[in-house]
Specification:
- The chain is α/β, with parallel strands linked by helices and 149 residues long.
- It has six helices and five strands; from the N terminus they run H-E-E-H-H-E-H-E-H-E-H.
- Helix content is 44%, strand content 19%.
- It has a five-stranded mixed sheet with strand order 2-1-3-4-5.
- The longest helix is centred in the last third of the chain and has 18 residues.
Length: 149
């Protein structure tokens, strides 16, 4: 039997959140957390709205999922995020013990890979799912932002 709830399906949900961020004037990064094919956290960047440099989509998703589960560990959960997590988010993901991270676009300057950040040894990482769509949204955001200034 084919499972319609694959990484592409859930990354599309994360991209919907990135679109919401875009419409709000936030850097368009969306994130969801899934457990057993069920979305338990759905969010996007809120750094501008909250005036908080730590309000990245991943941080919001970790908090929301932990609240939903009633505990701080996200074992058996998967994070889908439209941009490779930064060093700060990778640290939080390490401590959450999340089982899997799936990200769309790489961040070759500020991503956790470029920064040499570590994840929990049991965390699996998948990259490049809908990377082109996520990259295009980010590029469109920054082009529009430059044209307004």
């Amino acid at each position: 039997m084919i499972n319609p709830f694959d990484d592409t399906y859930f990354m599309r949900k994360a991209l919907q959140e990135a679109e919401v961020a875009f419409e709000k004037g936030e850097i368009p990064v969306g994130a969801i957390i899934v457990v057993q094919d069920r979305i338990i956290a759905r969010t996007h960047n809120l750094t501008e709205l909250l005036n908080d440099v730590t309000a990245h989509a991943e941080m919001q998703a970790i908090t929301s999922a932990a609240n939903f589960l009633g505990g701080k560990y996200l074992t058996n959960c998967t994070l889908y995020v439209t941009l490779e997590p930064c060093q700060m988010c990778a640290g939080a993901l390490y401590w959450s013990q999340i089982s899997k991270i799936v990200y769309a676009a790489s961040d070759e300057q500020r991503g956790f890979m470029a920064m040499g950040s570590k994840l929990h040894p049991k965390t699996k990482v998948v990259s490049g799912i809908l990377a082109e769509e996520a990259s295009q949204l980010l590029k469109r955001f920054f082009i529009e932002k430059r044209n307004l200034n």
